[in-house]
Amino acid sequence: MPTSSVARAAYGLTALCAVAGLAISLVLTISDPDSFPAADPGLFGPGDTLGRVSDWAMYFTYWSNALVAVVFGVLALAPRERGRGFRVLLLDALLMISVTGIVYAAILAPVAPPREGWEVVGNALVHYIVPPLAVLAFAAFGPRGWLERRLIPLALVIPVVWIVLTYARGAVTDAHPYGFINVVALGYPVALINTGVILLIGIALCFVLIGIDRLARRWSG
Question: Which of 19, 46, 146, 155 would bridge with 92, disulfide CB 3.0–4.6 Å?
Answer without folding.
Answer: 155
